[in-house]
Amino acid sequence: MTNSPMSDPRHDRPTPVSSNSDAPADVTPIQVMTGSKSAIFWAGVVFIAGVALFAVIQVDSWGERANRLPSRFSLDTSELTSVDAAQVAYKEIAAYPVEMETLRAVAAIPDGGFAVVGDVEIQRFDESGRKTQQITTDSPPTCIAFALDANLIYVGFAAAVHCYDAGGERRAVFNEGLNEDSMITSLAVFEDNVFVADAGQRAVLKFDSEGELLLKIDEEKKVEQGLRSFVVPSAHFDVLAADDGVLRVVNPGARSIEAFTLEGDALGAWGETSSAIEGFFGCCNPVALSMLPDGRFVTAEKGIPRVKIYDSNGTFESIVAPPAAFTNESTAKIEIRDSQRNGVLDVAVDRDGRILVLDPNRQTIRVFIENSHE
Amino acid sequence: MDTNSFDSGKQDRRRFMADALRTGGVVAMASAGGFLVGRRSEGEPMVWQLDPDRCTACGNCATHCVLDVSAVKCYNCFDMCGFCDVCTGYFEMNYKSLDTAAENQACPTGAIVRKFVEEKSGQRFYEYTIDEPICIGCAKCVEGCALMNGSLYLQIDHQKCLNCNECAIATACPTEAFYRIPQSQSEILKERAAAVYQARGSQTKRVIERDAEQTGTEIDQVKEAEANELLARAERQRVWRASQQKGSDSQEPSFQ
Description:
The complex is a heterodimer of chains A (374) and B (256). In chain A, 9% of the residues lie in helices and 35% in strands. With 374 residues, chain A is mainly β. Chain A starts with 6 loop residues before the first strand and ends with a strand. Chain B has helices at residues 3-41, 60-64, 140-146, 168-172, 191-215, 221-249; strands spanning 46-50, 72-76, 112-120, 123-130, 152-156, 178-182. Chain B has two domains: 46-188, no CATH class; 194-247, no CATH class. Chain B: GO terms for molecular function: oxidoreductase activity.
């Protein structure tokens, strides 16, 4: 507003005249600073904004460093999760999505393809990952194995094994020797025998093809042979019946793989407790075991998820998939919420020697082959 | 004396008395009603507690409590614990050896006590308990345990908690894991722990009832009481979680 005398149109009265009536009229309503004044002004603004931002970050109680604790008050898994790239001898060539909420186990089908159990379903896929069959079950299945001719499918539930024919019709139920403590976690088939790993009873049960219980490798049988019992702190207890006619059982609490004859007589054990890549980490690993056609072993671990290869004597050989392949690399923070924690891996080897890794977090079957393989 | 003014004064006094009586009656009735409503709506005291299923082990519990040593402590759900020889909650990730030397322990204050329980066919089992006064609630062990069984989790120790009107940790909690819960509930279990308690309580009841039937003896009262306690703990959690779910479904604030 100028200071020239003028009347107020509302009251038709003259407005007060400024005492400084001789001052020049202000023709620019906003004074714009130029030159060094402007530079100083904007430098000040930036400085104040910076201080404000710093203050906000300092009092941000939800930020990464909000707890103001030294680093020794948080767990550092970086040493465990980083691996020597030279040790990774496999590459991922495919990932087949599986339409299930919860994936629990994968098994190779002897005449090609693979099958996955989870939710309340069994799904069969061909070698290219195309779903060929779906069987709905009464309760959540936990594991699966195929007879050598692939005409019979054995599926484990909490306390029973169901035998289906190739068409998906249930033919038999095995429950002898299983009880309310049972928690079946793995199945293996060799010739006419079905081997059942029961984490609840900490035992491996041997059935014939009709479902008659033939043998129980439990604490009593192991102690008779001067062996350590199966130590199973969590419901991950794997069994493998390979073509060489030897039964291998993971003793997770002992971080070892134990070999038995088909009659349950101990043959030996291998495995080392260690957080290093050569050993098995934590309280109870590996969680899954399979065998390549040349007799080498494939193992999968939980906690620090990783898939590794051991030679037929149990000596560490190489890495199939490092922890980074299964975790979100954007954060090193360990997720402790049950609803957010990573699911546990399972492994199988198909007839072509491809390693099938069940990744429940991505709901896929991931396929790995050796780098040297074309 | 003017008789009209006398009658008028008499009427005013009567009206005043009548108004006073009416007002007194209304006040008395309102007071009685308020008293009765107040008695009916009087709830039990509420306390702060944190939901371990929402906790991310961020470490804020250790430093944001108004107490010098936080009222948040670590607890071990023994029914979920493997009593392992290699406990990832107890041992540092790069431990030198599996013993109790300070350099091998993950806990920066040495608050986890490792106690040998038994050796069973060549395998040694250990019990891990928390020395509460030393625990500062940093949750480093909770992170380690989560790599395996996840039996270690944080809870507020009500013996220590000042039950502030506005909990400083709750304000700083990035996942809003803090709740006001009835004092009688006192704890919030992991859902997995509640399921384990439910299963163990039910199984114990089945076993003692079957044993009593087979042997023709009375039901073991002590074991039955233990089973009932487990079932009650699980049921309290189920009810609380259901109420939280209902609250969130109806867009009611579930926090505080």
